[in-house]
Amino acid sequence: MKARRSIVIAFLLVAVLVLGVGFAAVSTTLDITGKADVNPDAAFKQDIYFDSAVANDAGNTATVNPNDDNKASFTANNLSGMGDSASFTYIVKNDGDLDAKISVTACSVSIGDTSIFEISTSWDEAQDLAAGGQAEITVTVSLKSTPEESISGSFIVELKAEAVNA
Fold first, then answer.
1. I need a surface site. Which of 2, 63, 71, 116 has the fewest CB within 10 A?
2. How far apart are CA 158 and CA 166, in angstroms?
3. Number of domains in the chain
4. 24 inside domain
C-alpha cells in the first residue's frame, strides 16, 4: 500500500511538473505592438549635402540653408542688359558609402516677372558623385532680355540625390 501511495504521489508530482513546464512554454510568448519605420533612403540623403556656397561676382550673395543642407540660395543684384549674368559656386559632398546620382535645380523666388531669368548649372546629371567625394557645381543666372531698369533676383537651389546600385 505504501508503494502504491508513493507511485501515486510521484505520478502527481510529475503531472504538476509537466503542467508547469507546459504553462511556462505557452506563457513565454512575447507580443510586441507598435510601429517601426525603416527608411534607409532618408539616412542616405543626409550624407549628400551642400558644403559651401560662394558668389563669384561682387555685390551678390550665396548661402547654404542652415536648416536644410540640401537647399541653398543666391541673390543676383543689378543685372541690367540682355546677357548680363552672375555665377555662384557650390561644393556638394557625399560623405556616404554609396555613389550617388544627384541633380541640382534652381528657380527664382523673386517678386515680379521671373521669366526674364535663364538659369543653368554646370553639373552633368549623367555622372555620379562618388562615395566620399565632392563636386564643384556652378549655377549661372543671366537675363534673356533687357529690362527697363537694372534688376535683382533671389533664387533657391535644391539638391536631390539617389543611390547608385543600392
1. 2
2. 22
3. 1
4. no
Structural domain includes residue 143: yes
pLDDT for 37 equals 63
Q: What residues contact residue 96 under an 8 Å CB cut-off, 6+ apart?
A: 44, 47, 48, 131, 132
CATH classification of the domain holding 89: 2.60.40
Domain contains 19: no
Question: Hey, which bits of the chain come out as E strands?
Answer: 48-55, 61-64, 71-79, 85-94, 100-108, 117-121, 128-129, 134-143, 151-163
Q: Find cell 523666388 and name the residue.
A: 109
Cα–Cα distances (Å) from 45 to 2, 140, 151, 155, 159, in that order, read 79, 25, 35, 22, 10
pLDDT band at 45 (very low <50, low <70, confident <90, very high): low
Containing structural domain, residue 98: 40-163
Rg for the chain (alpha carbons), in Å? 33
The predicted-structure confidence for 80-107, as pLDDT tens digits, reads as follows 999 999 999 999 999 988 899 999 998 8
For the chain, give me the number of helices (H) and strands (E)?
2, 9
Give SS3 for 42.
helix
Q: Within a domain: residue 145?
A: yes
Report the predicted TM-score, pTM, of the whole model to 2 decimal places. 0.71
